[in-house]
Write a structure and sequence with these properties.
Helices cover 73% and strands 0% of the residues. It is an all-alpha fold. It is a multi-pass membrane protein.
Length: 343
């Protein structure tokens, strides 16, 4: 039966169910995906950072003690092995983990912030149209997003590292006897009482230089090494099917470790002098006249005392410990994202 004229006027055109159902879903999926990616970066980055910190912390303690030896006294440690030996003799092996509570928080914040801000950097490049969305970024862009992440992370990291450094390098009384080890809350109270809130960012320029340049190298080196290893693997493919399988699966675990280790070594070596100056600034006792030195003046004082070699004091042990630490960080982070996805 034909519809009446009135029915034709009042009836609404039929709309496919798929169109009405898919529109709101499509609009909601993108923000939801972005939120879940951010949560993954923060949660899994935190776990990876804590694991890496437990691996590297004894070496970091030795590094800071080597870096922060005062200008006006003979060197207390002849090198990394001597520092290890003296530290273990004085405090036992667990003494090398002195003050780890603050760095554990710092490691969780640092690593999660790095992955979080690096993700924002990637999204910014896609949003600005510098790279087609859905494709991997070129290696040059990965170095850029790493620097972007490092700049923002440095402001989170400086206060935590200041507390860590003051705990790792205990002040000495007259006669060279070390004072009782400090606790994080005690350090926080002392810094705030003498320098106010601004005092927690003492050494910020050194952290900024190290993190911006170092994180560019960290992400960039990891992706560069990954690409080189993947290209080498694909050359050995005997068929198109095997090639597609290689492209669809992660690198073998040992190759992931190599890529992560190369990232850590590049991060620590390239900008080590900035870290040395920062450590010296942050370990100067509260109330010492040298505490008011700027980044440039601290660098000049170190140059006068020890020359170029002084800027790389502790570099060897730092690069050594960064290899396994960084390898673990990337393997844990990538593994969690692959096997426990939140999306």
């Amino acid at each position: 039966m034909e519809p009446t004229a009135e029915a034709q006027l009042t009836s609404k055109p039929e709309v496919p169910i798929s169109a009405t159902a898919s529109s709101p879903v499509t609009m909601e999926l993108k923000p939801r995906k972005a939120v879940m990616e951010a949560i993954e970066d923060i949660a899994y980055g935190s776990v990876a950072g804590v694991v890496g910190k437990y691996v590297e912390y004894p070496f970091d303690t030795v590094k800071v003690r080597l870096q922060s030896q005062p200008d006006h006294l003979p060197l207390r440690y002849r090198g990394p092995l001597d520092c290890f030996r003296q530290s273990i003799r004085a405090d036992g092996f667990l003494g090398l983990y002195r003050g780890i509570s603050a760095p554990l928080v710092g490691a969780a914040l640092e690593t999660s912030s790095l992955f979080f801000f690096e993700g924002i950097g990637r999204e910014t490049i896609y949003a600005l149209g510098f790279a087609p969305r859905g494709q991997d970024l070129p290696l040059s862009a990965m170095w850029l997003t790493g620097a972007f992440a490092g700049v923002f992370t440095s402001f989170i990291l400086t206060p935590i590292e200041l507390v860590k450094c003051k705990i790792q390098v205990p002040e000495t009384e007259s006669g060279g006897v070390a004072k009782a080890s400090l606790k994080p809350l005690q350090v926080i109270k002392d810094v705030f009482r003498h320098q106010g809130l601004r005092g927690f960012w003492h050494g910020q320029l050194g952290t900024l230089i190290r993190e911006a340049g170092g994180c560019a190298a960290w992400f960039g080196s990891k992706e560069t090494a990954t690409k080189l290893l993947r290209d080498a693997n694909e050359k050995s493919a005997r068929s198109e099917a095997e090639l597609e399988r290689m492209r669809a699966t992660p690198l073998p675990l040992w190759q992931q470790a190599v890529a992560g280790a190369s990232a850590g070594m590049a991060y620590n070596f390239l900008f080590f002098p900035a870290d040395t100056i920062k450590s010296r600034m942050q370990t100067t006792p509260i109330g010492d006249p040298a505490q008011n030195r700027s980044f440039a003046k601290e660098g000049a004082a170190l140059w006068k005392q020890a020359g170029l070699r002084g800027f790389y004091r502790g570099c060897g042990v730092t690069v050594l410990r960064s290899a396994p630490s960084s390898a673990f960080i990337f393997m844990v982070y990538d593994g969690l994202k692959k096997y426990l996805p939140m999306q």
